[in-house]
Amino acid sequence: MRIIKNQEVVEDEWVLLREAPAAPAANVIVPFADWCEQRDAWLSAGAGVWLSGADSVEELAPALPQLPLIALDFPQFVDGRCYSSARLLRNRYQYQGELRAIGDILRDQLYFMQRCGFDSFELRADRDPQEALQAFAEFSVRYQPAADGAPALFRYR
Questions:
Q1: For 3-22, what is each residue's pLDDT tens digit?
Q2: Candidates 2.60.120.580, 3.30.430.20, 3.20.20.70, 3.50.50.60; CATH matching 2-156
Q3: What is the pLDDT of residues 91-140, one digit of tens each?
Q4: 85: closest CA among 77, 95, 76?
């Protein structure tokens, strides 16, 4: 599968699992509930974790330095709770690993997701990632500060 990572289309090195395998493995992204059951084993394996909008990012805080990837699931276009989770992870908890948006991800959301701290995106299967790259260049001015570190317009005075 191809994803967008750091504004480039690349082959995905990770496998998103809706149910965790029997034994922890590397380069898999497992649901938060499964990850919590065997937290130490998943951390040792180098696995990633995916959270829904209802999951608490605060519970991940102690493990953040060891997590290579966190995926936040947008089950529907109208569910924006993971935008807040992304900002918390980047700003409050200073998470430095890969932060991926999964689920019902559309081109129109990419720019704003990046501003919240996402750096990789798994688009819906019916969307062309190459065409979606244009979304990152659609706005040249940023009015407010955000997790992406880009300077806000008022900083230019």
A1: 999 999 999 999 999 888 87
A2: 3.20.20.70
A3: 999 999 999 999 999 899 999 999 999 999 999 889 999 999 999 888 77
A4: 95
How many helices (H) and strands (E) would you count in the chain?
5, 8
Residue linked to tokens 């009015």: 143
- Which pTM value belongs to this model? 0.89
Burial class of residue 118, CB neighbours in 10 A (0-12, 13-18, 19+): buried
Alpha carbons 125 and 42: distance in angstroms, whole number: 28
The answer to whether the beta carbons of residues 55 and 74 sit under 8 Å apart is no
